[in-house]
Q: What sequence folds into this?
């Protein structure tokens, strides 16, 4: 989408022509004048933060994080290699 100018700062974005273009800047007054507006974004709680309240020991949470990160690294490595990249990823150290 050209209006969003990917790779550039958000300040470089340009409003679309017309009222219903793909990129339109709205002021606070415009937003709160709409029906069913709720500027409270606390409902957007990050589910990853639930572990902090789970009562699990920190080492268990850390182990889960390591597994999740390793899995993500494996996926990104596979993607990079499928795109022709030469990725040298050291094996995880076993304890």
A:
């Amino acid at each position: 989408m050209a209006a969003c100018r990917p790779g550039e700062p958000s300040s470089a974005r340009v409003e679309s022509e017309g009222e219903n273009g793909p990129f339109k800047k709205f002021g606070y007054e415009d937003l709160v004048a709409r029906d069913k507006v709720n500027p409270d974004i606390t409902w957007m709680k990050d589910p990853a933060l639930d572990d902090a309240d789970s009562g699990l020991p920190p080492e268990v949470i850390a182990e889960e994080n390591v597994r999740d990160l390793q899995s993500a690294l494996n996926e990104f490595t596979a993607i990079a290699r499928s795109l022709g990249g030469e990725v040298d990823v050291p094996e995880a150290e076993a304890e």
